[in-house]
């Protein structure tokens, strides 16, 4: 690729938000037809740099040249007219509309002034087929899983004739086979000369798909490497300015009495009767392929979905009112995978979001003790190293990974006896991941029982005391730490029964 002229050049880009210098002299060169990975810790400025390129923000200073022309798009529409298309990190679909309507939003095919729904449906289906996704184009987006929504979002971008495509963490919610399909699509785009800028925290992705990688730290560009001539250790060093152990520390914790007991929990068509128990200080890992019912299990335990039968007991007491409010009151917490729809009120302040579930605790004599609330929130922000300008900042203005930490902070503030974690490290950078492992270790050290749903094998095998494996809505088996190997977990996840 050397000797080729960059098609995109970004130089000296600065951008300030109230209280934060998000970008300081950041830059990037992208060659025609390459996959250029953008890497950096949460809050490093990756999304901001790309939003400037694609017209969502304007830079305070700096120069952008695309295809030989200086550009300064004032809106996403203007950027799109130049062929600059971005798939956003936080999903941007309209939940009330169907898949097809979302894919063609604002660009509906018409004939004689009428929208051609059949053409729209067919078009959406064709695009999704490229991604090996077979959701019905008439399904309302609100009914889709996070992974399916992500694929629809990608289909929206593919519908536009991009000359450069930015993908902001497209793989965070996808299964391995979906990621493979996405990579095939990326390869064919690049084959046509369309460069792709690809943001991801997954090292695997970088080495699988990237040609070159640019690393950002604290709003600056710290270096660009050929993927072939670098390795994980060097990239991490560039990202965080220090070396971090990639290993997950397993804490020795005393395991106590049963805190969570689930018996015969069932939801028709979704969950076959599941029974399991988790002890104080124990981490029960939950493995399974995408769609195997892991999230459904957690939702049913928490009471977010109404079960058709079965009981859930927390510290020996059977919970009668099966709804999230009753669960929280009983000491059960649920950290969801979908922070936008189920986790956070993005327009409210960070402080409010953190104290959301613990308001009872903070309220004294019937009035809100604002100072206590604030102090506790401040403590958690510090402990989780959440990067923010102020607790009063709207949560929507935090970087994606820092939003995830706010969800965590909230549940820590609620002081639960049992915590259900659904993919807690998704979209989180390596350094923050290590902090979250540390934190889970601290929680079990304090006697909390943890249920950890994760697709990351090292995380699962590194942290879990026992591993429950789901397959097609049923609990396929539970492995002890000693017998839980990658092979055994995969066998069960693929539906082989226990030997
Ligand atoms: N609209 C906004 N208002 C205020 N601050 C913002 C806004 N958007 C981003 N920021 C701040 O700018 C900095 C860079 O954020 P950005 O979203 O670009 O990070 P990122 O590298 O994409 O991180 P992540 O990996 O977590 O997605 C952060 O400190 C963030 O809080
Ligand atoms: Mg981001």
Question: How do the strands and helices of this protein lay out in sequence?
Answer:
Layout: E1 8-17, E2 20-30, E3 35-40, H1 46-53, E4 61-66, E5 69-71, H2 76-81, E6 84-87, H3 99-103, E7 110-111, E8 114-115, H4 117-130, H5 146-159, E9 164-168, H6 176-191, E10 196-199, H7 203-209, E11 212-217, E12 220-226, H8 232-240, E13 258-267, E14 271-279, E15 283-287, H9 294-302, E16 309-314, E17 317-318, H10 324-330, E18 332-335, H11 339-343, H12 350-355, H13 359-362, E19 363-364, E20 367-368, H14 370-383, H15 400-413, E21 418-422, H16 430-445, E22 449-453, H17 457-463, E23 466-471, E24 474-480, H18 486-493
Parallel strand pairs: 3-10, 3-11, 6-9, 9-10, 15-22, 15-23, 18-21, 21-22
Antiparallel strand pairs: 1-2, 1-4, 4-5, 7-8, 11-12, 13-14, 13-16, 16-17, 19-20, 23-24
Helix pairs in contact: 4-5, 14-15
Adenosine-5'-triphosphate is lined by residues 17, 20, 22, 40, 42-48, 89, 387, 397-402, 429.
């Amino acid at each position: 690729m050397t000797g080729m002229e960059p098609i995109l050049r970004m130089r000296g880009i600065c951008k300030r938000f109230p209280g934060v210098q998000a970008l300081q002299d950041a830059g990037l060169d992208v060659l025609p037809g390459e996959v250029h990975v953008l890497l950096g810790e949460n809050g490093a400025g990756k999304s901001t740099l790309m939003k400037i390129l694609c017209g969502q923000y304007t830079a305070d200073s700096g120069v952008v040249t695309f295809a030989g022309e200086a550009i300064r798009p004032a809106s996403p529409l203007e950027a799109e007219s130049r062929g600059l298309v971005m798939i956003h990190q936080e999903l941007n679909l309209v939940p009330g509309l169907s898949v097809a309507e979302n894919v063609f939003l604002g660009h509906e095919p018409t004939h004689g002034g009428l929208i051609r729904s059949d053409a729209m449906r067919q078009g959406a289906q064709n695009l999704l087929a490229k991604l090996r996704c077979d959701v019905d184009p008439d399904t309302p987006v609100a009914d889709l899983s996070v992974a399916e929504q992500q694929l629809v979002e990608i289909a929206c971008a593919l519908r536009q004739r991009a000359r450069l495509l930015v993908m902001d963490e497209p793989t965070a919610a996808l299964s391995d086979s979906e990621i493979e399909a996405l990579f095939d699509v990326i390869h064919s785009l690049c084959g046509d000369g369309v460069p792709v800028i690809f943001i991801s925290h997954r090292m695997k992705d970088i080495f699988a798909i990237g040609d070159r990688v640019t690393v950002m730290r604290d709003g600056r560009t710290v270096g660009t490497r050929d993927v072939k001539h670098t390795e994980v250790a060097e990239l991490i060093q560039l990202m965080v300015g220090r070396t971090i152990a990639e290993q997950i520390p397993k804490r020795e914790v005393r395991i106590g009495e049963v805190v969570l007991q689930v018996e015969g929990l069932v939801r028709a068509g979704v969950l076959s009767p599941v029974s399991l128990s988790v002890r104080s200080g124990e981490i029960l890992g939950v493995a399974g392929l995408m769609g195997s019912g892991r999230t459904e299990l957690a939702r049913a335990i928490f009471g977010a979905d109404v079960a058709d039968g079965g009981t859930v007991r927390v510290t020996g007491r059977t919970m009668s009112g099966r709804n999230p409010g009753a669960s929280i009151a009983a000491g059960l917490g649920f950290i969801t995978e979908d922070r936008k729809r189920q986790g956070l009120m993005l327009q409210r302040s960070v402080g409010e979001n953190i104290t959301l579930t613990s308001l009872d605790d903070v309220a004294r004599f019937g009035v809100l003790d604002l100072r206590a609330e604030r102090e506790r929130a401040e403590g958690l922000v510090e402990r989780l190293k959440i990067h923010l300008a102020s607790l009063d900042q709207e949560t929507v203005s935090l970087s994606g990974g820092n939003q995830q930490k706010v969800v965590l902070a909230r549940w820590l503030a609620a002081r639960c006896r049992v915590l259900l974690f659904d993919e807690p490290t998704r979209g989180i950078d390596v350094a923050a991941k290590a902090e979250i492992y540390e934190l889970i270790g601290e929680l079990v050290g304090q006697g909390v029982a943890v249920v950890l749903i994760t697709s990351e094998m090292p995380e699962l095998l590194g942290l879990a005391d026992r591993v429950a494996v789901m397959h097609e809505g049923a609990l396929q088996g539970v492995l002890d730490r000693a017998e839980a190997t990658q092979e055994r977990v995969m066998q069960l996840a693929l539906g082989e029964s226990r030997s």
